[in-house]
Amino acid sequence: MKINLEELKFGTELIKRGFAKMQKGGVIMDVTNAEQAAIAEEAGAVAVMALHKVPADIRATGGVARMADPKKIQEIIDAVTIPVMAKCRIGHIAEARALEALGVDMIDESEVLTPADVFFHIDKRKFVVPFVCGARSLGEAVRRIWEGAAMIRTKGEAGTGNVVEAVKHMRLINRAIFELQKMNEEKIYITAENYAYRYAELASRVREEMGLEKVSRNDVVFEEYTLGEIIDGIYEILLEIRELGRLPVVNFAAGGVATPADAALMMQLGADGVFVGSGIFKSSNPPEYAKAIVEAVQHYDEPEVIAEVSKGLGEAMKGLDVFKLSEEERLQTRGL
Amino acid sequence: MRVTVVGVQGDVEEHVLATKRALKNLKIDGEVVATRRKGVVSKSDAVILPGGESTTISKLIFSDGIADEILQLAEEGKPVMGTCAGLILLSKYGDEQVEKTDTKLLGLLDAKVKRNAFGRQRESFQVSLDVKHVGKFEAVFIRAPAIVEVGKDVEVLATLENFIVAAKQKNVLGLAFHPELTNDTRIHEFFLKIGECQ
Q1: A291-296: long-range pairs with CB below 8 Å, 24+
Q2: Cβ within 8 Å, pair B123-A12
Q3: Which chain A residue's Cα is nearest to B129?
Q4: Which residues of A239-253 are buried (b: 16+ CB within 10 A; e: fewer)?
Q5: Which of A115, A200, A334, B114 fits a disulfide with B95 by CB distance 3.0 to 4.6 angstroms?
């Protein structure tokens, strides 16, 4: 069959969500150069996340964390055959467009980098390339899905090597879905209004300062959408979640997964797969560590395999006590 | 009829659901399971290799012995289907990407595949495709591979420009796209009936 270019459809919801579905049951590894990317691919990673620095180093260095150097990303793209993802700052449309132009396969609009916009995330439906976004709660997850995210991941607390926050976020989302399944349409609509209010914050603040009337359903509050359209869109997503008993997009665990057992724990809590950030290349034996985490995700419900792959792996990354971090040091509070 | 979806990695659940719907449409009494362990494929009447990352799936099925069970099932003439990454694994020959990554293939389809034949994710597309024995089908290609050469025993079912995107060799069916992502179950139905024709 000859291809009629006009008949080809690119960047549809089906294609974007479909890409994320192909990653299920897999491990996506943070890498900072071509050599690390090759180690990840060899270990069985389903994709790599190209970064300038792993989150633990971003934390240590401080300052503004931005999109990685495109030259670095290009080197990683050239080094592996598996998909390459890269991070842009929350709300940074220009970084996202640059990553799309580079040929990155998925963009992580990530709280690990310094946010560029305190009001809004990117309207991801306007892109051909799919996005993944972090979430701490069902509200955050649903807002990102409404904006067009094809994949959700827990935020956890990146660069700490401490799984506690990833567990917390997965539990919060799971519990909220459980509650949703007992709710009628009327109650779900109220939840949709609560979840959507975040989009009206900018307009509300400005109007209040100016002494104007409150924001109503018919006001355009984000891009070309009125508050009413956003509420209705979020309501539809909530109904779909109630029906499915899970998010309508792939949901990965991220933010503090450091060991094979951590990865298995997140899979047992219902994650579709795992992102490992600093955990692999901050360990004492990255190739073995990477392989062990891939095995642990595949055999998450077989304790004997978890025990076997965890033997003699050497030092895991050192890790941080999340509870001792100050509010400013907590990356998860970025982008609501 | 017992159908097993190899569930080590990829869009496994989507194939399970599509196959269940196809069985229902065909009024065939059967069950569909997904497995990450050996010992299940060998007790099946048909097996599906899903989409995902071929490098990852290959490592896991060859290290766990699932690969041998698939080969055995194919030898017995039972239907075997692979979509996208699954097509790569079913094929006999790969391109330089397959060789570079040292990806082991099952070699059940006398074909040479090219990985990421259409480009990266931003070049991924869907199109209404003519599929032999099935008809027009909305085909979703995601970082899809394509077949560039086939042996004489292979029946070509669909092409796009110079690429072969669906092919069948006796009981083995390989597709470069993802019928499991749409609600249209005709390809899964065609697959389930392959056994009857053999």
Answers
A1: A291/A43, A291/A44, A292/A260, A293/A27, A293/A43, A293/A257, A293/A259, A293/A260, A293/A263, A294/A26, A294/A27, A294/A43, A294/A44, A294/A45, A294/B56, A294/B59, A295/A260, A296/A260, A296/A261, A296/A263, A296/A264
A2: no
A3: A1
A4: eebbeeeebebbbbb
A5: B114
Q: Does residue A96 surpass a pLDDT of 80?
A: yes
Closest chain A residue by Cα to residue B56? A44
Distance in Å, alpha carbon of A327 to nearest chain B alpha carbon: 37
B127: chain A residues, CB-CB within 8 Å:
3, 7-9
Task: Say what the pTM is.
Answer: 0.95
pLDDT digits (tens, 9 = 90+) for B8-43: 999 999 999 999 999 999 999 999 999 999 999 999
The tens digit of pLDDT for each residue in B98-147 reads: 999 999 999 999 999 999 999 999 999 999 999 999 999 999 999 999 99
* CB distance A241 to A177 below 8 Å: yes
Q: Under an 8 A CB cutoff, do B161 and A44 touch? A: no
Q: Which residue has the tokens 């597709």?
A: B175
Is A168 an active-site residue? no
Q: What is the pLDDT of residues A251-277, one digit of tens each?
A: 999 999 999 999 999 999 999 999 998
Place of tokens 């569909």: B32
Q: Quick one: which of B47, B45, B91, B85 has its CA closest to B66? A: B47
Q: Measured between alpha carbons, how far is B190 from B198 in angstroms, rounded to an integer? A: 13
Does A129 contact B123 at a Cβ distance shorter than 8 Å? no
Does residue A287 belong to the interface with chain B, where contact is any CB pair within 8 Å? Answer: no
CA distance B73 to chain A (A): 23
Q: Which residues pair with B122 in a beta bridge?
A: none
Q: Are strands A151-154 and B2-6 parallel, antiparallel or unpaired?
A: unpaired
Task: Give the residue from A13, A9, A333 showing the smallest Cα distance to A149.
Answer: A13
Q: How close A145 comes to chain B (CA, Å)?
A: 18
Comparing alpha-carbon positions, the chain B residue that sits nearest to A128 is B122
